[in-house]
Each structure stands twice: as structure tokens, then as C-alpha cells.
Design a protein that fits this description.
Elements (H helix, E strand, L loop, with lengths): L1 H26 L7 E2 L4 E3 L4 E2 L9 E6 L5 H17 L6 E5 L11 H11 L5 E3 L5 H5 L3 E2 L1 E8 L2 E8 L15 H10 L14 E2 L3
Parallel strand pairs: 4-5, 5-6
Antiparallel strand pairs: 1-9, 2-3, 2-6, 4-8, 7-10, 8-9
């Protein structure tokens, strides 16, 4: 009986430790002002993509998104519009799919390729294979946006959060958080609102 109790306690500790590590990994993600590390992830075109590939970029609109979340799907056209507006100005969209495709088969690489083709994505749509990147950023939702500014010190996080203030209706948006942030950076100004709450689906691990 005593052995069973000890084994139960050990099991509980291991489970709780695993949960805590996961929570800490996300909670300890990048904050505004931190330097974001570069990454190398597979794009839907079969090529590996890194931030360092973009020599002329002034920064990036790194967006964690996916195929299967209704919030992410609802924002797809707005993400495309952001890239169309800002890529030529030096702030391209870099979309990253953070979900575990074993848990969420609709987010497999094949499904990503199909979706990117259907929607005509003009930006990279990368898979976070092994789910190593999203915890570094501290992403918790799809979509979840991190705006980076390229500096001599590295890629500085300037904004974290939602794309805008109305996920249900693009025509009813009052505050465009990402656009306001990028516009400020392009003018050499401080980002007016540096952090907002990301609204979306939880990342599947």
C-alpha cells in the first residue's frame, strides 16, 4: 500500500512538472523590448525560411496562425492585406503554424500547402515543426502577432497581441493595432499601444 502511494505521488509530481514546464516556457516568452532569435522553418514551398533571408527588411509582422481555428480563418484576408500593404515598405508578414499536426490533422503541411494556394498567400507560411518557436515567443493563441524591428542589436519586439479590436467583423474595426504599430515604426515613433490581448484558439500541443 505504501509503495502504491509513493508511486502515485511520483506520477503526480512528474505530470505537474511537465505541465509547469510548458506553462513556464510560454509565460517566459518574449516581452516588448526583448531581442527575438532568428529561426529556420519549412515553408509551404518546401524551402527553409529565416528572418536573415530578408536583407532589406526593416522588420517583420510575425503571425502565429493556422488552418483550423475559426478566428485565424476569419483574419486571413486581413493578414493578406497587411502583407500587401507593408511588405514593400519593409515589414513583411511571416506566418507560422504552431499547432501539433498529430493532434490537429487539419494543420498538416499538406493542408497548409492547400490553404496557402487557395487563398493566394504571398507571404511565407511556415510550420513550427517540433513546436520549438512559439514557446520562445510566448504565443498562446491563433492568431497571435509579434512585430519585430530590425536594429543593430537584433530583432527587437515592438508589439505583441491582436491584429485589431474586432475579430468578428473587419468592417466594424475601430482600432487597427498592427497597422498603428507599423505606421509608428515607419515614422520613427514609439508604438502607441505596445501590447493587447490576443483573441483566438489555444495552440494545440
Amino acid at each position: 500500500m505504501k509503495t502504491i502511494k509513493i508511486l502515485s505521488l511520483v506520477t503526480l509530481v512528474v505530470v505537474m512538472s511537465a505541465f509547469t514546464v510548458n506553462k513556464i516556457a510560454v509565460a517566459d516568452g518574449y516581452k516588448v523590448g526583448d531581442v527575438a532569435e532568428d529561426f529556420k522553418l519549412m515553408n509551404v514551398d518546401g524551402k527553409m525560411v529565416s528572418l536573415s533571408n530578408y536583407k532589406d527588411a526593416k522588420g517583420f509582422i510575425v503571425t502565429f496562425t493556422c488552418n483550423t481555428c475559426p478566428y485565424a480563418v476569419g483574419y486571413e484576408d486581413r493578414i493578406i492585406a497587411l502583407n500587401n500593404k507593408y511588405a514593400s515598405l519593409g515589414y513583411p508578414v511571416i506566418a507560422i503554424m504552431p499547432n501539433n499536426p498529430d493532434v490537429q490533422p487539419g494543420d498538416s503541411m499538406e493542408a497548409m500547402k492547400k490553404r496557402a494556394k487557395e487563398k493566394g498567400f504571398t507571404f511565407p507560411y511556415l510550420m513550427d515543426d517540433g513546436q520549438n518557436i512559439y514557446p520562445k515567443y510566448g504565443a498562446t493563441k491563433t492568431p497571435h502577432v509579434f512585430i519585430l524591428q530590425k536594429t543593430a542589436k537584433g530583432h527587437i519586439v515592438k508589439y505583441i497581441g491582436a491584429i485589431d479590436d474586432n475579430y468578428q467583423d473587419a468592417s466594424a474595426v475601430k482600432t487597427k493595432y498592427v497597422e498603428n504599430a507599423v505606421n509608428a515604426l515607419l515614422k520613427g515613433n514609439e508604438v502607441p499601444e505596445k501590447e493587447t490581448k490576443a483573441i483566438g484558439c489555444t495552440i494545440k500541443v
